[in-house]
Every structure is written in C-alpha cells, then in structure tokens.
Amino acid sequence: MSGTTVLTGKWPVLGRHEQAATWLTIWTDLGRAPRTIDAYARGLAEYLLMCQREGVDPVVANRAHIAVYVRELTSRPHRRGVNVVSIDSG
C-alpha cells in the first residue's frame, strides 16, 4: 500500500482531489520524511475541507479564499488544549 493511499484513507477529502494526491506523491517521491508528508497531508486536507464548506474550487481559489482559511486557523482553539501558548515570530 502506497503512502498516498494511506493518507487518503486517513483524510478521505484528499482522495476526492486528484491534484492533491498527485502533489503528495511527488513530495513522497522526492524523499521527504514520512512525518513531513503526514503534516502536509493534514494541512492540505484541512484546507480542502474549508473549500468544500465554503463552496470554493481549490484550484481557482483566490487571496480572499486563502484569507478565510488563515483566519480560521488563527481563531480556532489549539488541538492540545486552551493552555497551549503560541509563540509568534512576527
């Protein structure tokens, strides 16, 4: 079973977007570490799910659509709990 198949099983939204699966396969073929590929897949899946919720075609998304996603990322609670502090390099 290929790494991309495992990832699309973990995040089914990736399997619905051929370009997403292709992109992950390319990164895998380039020899990126499995945990890196997993992190890329998770982030891509979250973005694709946001596109699905907002009715946006991810292939033609524009800056405004990306801004919605970034705003969502910055406003949702941390998955490890509310006491986790984020240090911004900004």
Walk me through what this model shows:
The chain is an all-alpha fold. It has one domain (3-75). 64% of the residues lie in helices and 0% in strands. The protein contains five helices and no strands. It has helices spanning 3-10, 12-15, 18-29, 34-54, 63-75. Helix 3 runs antiparallel to helix 4 (34-54). The longest helix has 21 residues, at 34-54. The protein starts with a helix and ends in a 15-residue tail after the last helix. The model has no long low-confidence stretch (mean pLDDT 83).
End-to-end CA span: 41 Å
The domain count comes to: 1
Reported for the largest beta sheet, the result is: none
Strand content: under 5%
- Give the radius of gyration: 14 Å
State the helicity in percent bands. 55-70%
The average pLDDT value, as a whole number, equals 83
Count helical runs.
5
- What is the overall silhouette? globular
Count of distinct strands: 0
Q: What's the order of the H and E elements?
A: HHHHH
SSE map:
Elements: H1 3-10, H2 12-15, H3 18-29, H4 34-54, H5 63-75
Helix pairs in contact: 3-4
List keywords for this structure.
90 residues, mainly alpha, 5 helices, globular
Task: Summarize it.
This is Site-specific recombinase XerD. The chain is mainly alpha-helical and 90 residues long.
